[in-house]
Hints:
Elements: E1 14-16, E2 21-22, E3 25-26, E4 30-33, E5 41-43, E6 48-55, E7 62-68, E8 73-83, H1 85-98, E9 103-106, E10 113-114, E11 119-123, E12 133-140, E13 145-147, E14 164-176, E15 179-182, E16 186-189, E17 191-193, E18 196-205, E19 209-216, E20 231-236, E21 239-245, E22 248-250, H2 257-260, H3 263-266, E23 272-275, E24 287-289, E25 303-311, E26 317-326, E27 342-344, E28 350-354, E29 357-361, E30 370-372, E31 374-376, E32 387-388, E33 393-395, E34 406-411, E35 422-427, E36 433-437, E37 439-442, E38 445-450, E39 454-460, E40 466-469, E41 483-488, E42 494-501, E43 504-506, E44 509-511, E45 516-519, E46 532-541, E47 546-554
Parallel strand pairs: 18-26
Antiparallel strand pairs: 1-4, 2-3, 4-12, 5-11, 6-7, 6-9, 6-10, 7-8, 8-11, 8-12, 13-22, 14-15, 14-16, 14-19, 17-18, 19-23, 20-21, 20-25, 21-24, 25-26, 27-30, 28-29, 29-34, 31-33, 32-39, 33-39, 34-38, 35-36, 35-39, 37-38, 40-41, 41-45, 42-43, 42-46, 44-45, 46-47
Amino acid sequence: MAYQYPIKDVKGLHSASFAEMRPDHFHSGVDIKTEGKIGKPIVAAEDGYISRVCHTPSGYGLALYVTHPKRGTMTVYGHLSRFIDGVESYVRDYRYQNRANSVDINFTPDKFPVKRGEIIGYSGNTGNSFGPHLHYELRNAEGTHTYNIVRKGVLRPKDDISPRLLRLHYIEVDTLDGVAVEAPVKSFNILGKGNSYKIDGTVSVGRVGYFVLECRDHQTGNGSSRFGIYRAKMSVDDRTIFDYRMDGFAFSDSRLCNLVSHYAMQQGAKCEVIRLAQVAGAPERLYHKSAGRGAIRVAEGEQCKIEIVVEDDCGNSSVLRFTAKGKADSQCFTPIRDCVAVVAGVGSRVVATDRGVSAFVGKTAYYAPTFCRVQRTENRPDIEGVVVLSDECSVLDPTVPMQRHVTVALDAKVPLELMTKCCVAVKNRRGKYTHAGGYYAGGGKVYLRTRRVGDMVVVADTIAPTVRPNWREGANLTRSNRLTFSVSDNFAGVDSYSLWIDNEWVTLNYNPLQGVVYHSFDRALAAGRNTNHSVRMRVVDGVGNITIFEGEFYR
Length: 555
């Protein structure tokens, strides 16, 4: 018997598909539209028990995990507005007992058993959600592996639209000191409509290289919503040399999206940017077939027929056909050795250093051997809202995906009064400096453990968070179901928040995307009813700046 559809009173349209490329992770489920509404009934997809609940400001927000022992699976329901009453009461009491705004609770099978089709919660817009929807997953019973629920037939969206193929890129590759070095990207416009595409003329290729394809999918009835793809297959002269399929993945593999996609081009792209090659570090389990790892090898003057087939998880496919011709050896890419860079990934830890900036790079920091360099500049940028304490430093290459953290040490002259407010700012792809963490370690050294690299600078953030009540002092809130505040921070971000009413700790819910913190009046207030109540709120940012708000309301 098929699983029960997980939500009532919706049209069954989706807003995101399985394994879409997200920043540093595959999307682990399917997002089901709720027509912009909150409060749609969520039902258990099969008999089982609620094995876990989460109540957090990020990720899935309010989330339920239901284990199905007879199926050997688990279903996940994310971004809810609330749980059923029994679970809601348990979570509320647990938060008060532990004085914890965020909780992650596991249950035994006898605590909250559920039947197929039984309401277990209500849809919402909590956590890292940009609009009301249900995030739905099917996992193994242990919750360590997630499945493509459309390919498995758990969900069956109506879709007869083939993927759109947008642009093709070719990257020539050569090896230098054991490091694969890539030539500048060469791009080609794709022509066609429906499910058949071509490239005008012949594509010139070097001795060794690979293709990258920009593509996206749409689903029938979903308007302009964009989706990921299920499969990308490439053949050379009718011989399959590459076949990527996404039937599921272990959560420990989620960051490997940075290898399946072209990491640098995928950043900020509004489509999937798929490498049609199994690059170094990408495990075999992600590919059905990868003869020669998908590399294109064409000798000078020779030609071959290339066919690329892209398929969505509903079985619709599109094909791109073109001819590739090997260019003269004299025109092929020859890399030039950077004499300053050191090679990471071939031995023990290496240190890249330059005038007061060092990067300590472990053997497994990158997925494959990589050239590493750092450089201190004479530039001291002006960053609004913080005190800049060092010159700008270029640390490693932000276009190369990192597997593990590196440690960066930056020299800076830090006044005594700013030592506890020190951190590191890293420039993002939009050119804006943002908080990356780090701390002052003494001796003029600031350390940062990070996978975010590129241009960085030492700063001090001395500005406390801003807290503004969304009610007037002394307001009558008898008919209100929430006590709401707007909260923001200029740089380091909100790190923790606590609220006391009538000198007793009470729960707070935080929506960082909206900058809103609220208390739901989820239990009787200490001072009773029909009286004034004192309010004290404490908000701390990422470097320890503290704001205390005090006020009063009537209820």
